[in-house]
Amino acid sequence: MPDVVVVGDLATDVVVLLDGAPAPGSDRPAAIRSHGGGAGANVAVHLARLGTPVTFAACVGDDAAGTGLVAELAAAGVTPAVRTVAGAASGTIVSLVEPGGQRSMLADRGANLALGAADVPVPRRHLHLSGYTLFAPGPRAAGLAALAAARAAGCTVSVDPASTGPLAARGVDRWLADTAAATLVLPNADEARLLTGCADPATAARALAARHAGAVVTLGADGALWAAGDVLVHRPAHAVEVVDTTGAGDAFTAGFLSVWLADRNPVRALEAGLTQAAVVVARPGAR
Ligand SMILES: Nc1ncnc2c1ncn2[C@@H]1O[C@H](COP(=O)(O)OP(=O)(O)OP(=O)(O)O)[C@@H](O)[C@H]1O
Question: Separation of 137 CA from ligand 1 center, angstroms?
Answer without folding.
Answer: 29
